[in-house]
Design goal:
5-stranded antiparallel beta sheet, elongated, Immunoglobulin-like, about 0% helix, about 65% strand, about 160 residues
């Protein structure tokens, strides 16, 4: 298992993104990867005036996790999903994804991701599952990235 925590807007720490990849060895050089990520707001408000009188509650605008391999045909998945949020069941786990645009699956031959885009002022979970197969002589390496967006709602 690999874990990571990313501070969102590090100087102000408005939120954090916690993430984990569980690696299950299947056979030979084939592995199943279960991805989990969650955006967690730290309840700090954004002051949008210089006096600090007018405060706005922060919200997530996007959350993403992505795996990338070096060679085509190393990644595969039996589940791709695109929707507007709600209950998502992947690899025996169910999470409630907030309303917004949600995608999970292969982007291309070398990248897998789960991505949410919308506006939500509470925690956001992401899950995903894919398999990776390495050639016997290939280096067993994955690039794992996390991405986020936060903001405030304005009257305009």
């Amino acid at each position: 298992m690999y874990t990571r925590q990313k501070a969102i807007t590090p100087s102000n720490r408005y939120a954090v993104q916690d993430a984990a990849v569980l690696v299950h060895h299947l056979v030979d050089t084939r592995y199943r990867l279960r991805l989990w990520s969650a955006g967690r707001l730290l309840r700090r408000q954004y002051g949008d005036d210089s006096w600090g009188i007018y405060q706005k509650k922060m919200a997530f605008t996007q959350l993403e996790q992505e795996l990338e391999v070096n060679y085509e045909n190393q990644l595969s998945t039996d589940r791709s999903l695109s929707g507007d949020g709600g209950p998502v069941n992947v690899a025996g786990e169910t999470v409630i994804v907030p309303d917004g645009s949600y995608e999970m699956g292969l982007i291309d031959e070398t990248r897998y991701h789960s991505h949410w885009n919308g506006f939500h002022a509470n925690d956001i979970p992401l899950i995903g599952v894919c398999e990776v197969s390495f050639a016997d002589s290939a280096e067993r390496r994955l690039d794992w990235t996390l991405d986020y967006g936060i903001g405030v709602q304005t009257p305009v």
